[in-house]
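Folding problem:
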Amino acid sequence: MEGALAWVIAKRRRAEDGSFCGSDRILAELRDKSRTRARCGFVVDQGAPVREGTALRDESGAEVGIVTSGGFSPCLKKGIGMCYVREATLPRRPSAPLPLPTRTPPRAPPGR
């Protein structure tokens, strides 16, 4: 499943087709391992947080994912967020870098 949330579906419900809304698609993805994208979390070490709707692109410029949420973490003092990344471009190790774009925060006009 895209969100990697299979743990929230009880084993009894996994065995019964039609036992919950969306079960046809979700159970098929679990059975066939046919997900096309995966949910990932990320940390932005420098610069402004990446915002919702920002496209993630690889080195060639092809879109490989999209940011679903992003903001500043006061505890980490860094930008954090979540995104969906195409399965084929998914990092193979958890700490692998994602192709995050840098965002320049808006500046106040001079004289204010």
In short: Helices lie at 11-15, 23-32. The chain has two helices and four strands. Residues 36 and 88 are 8 Å apart (CA to CA).
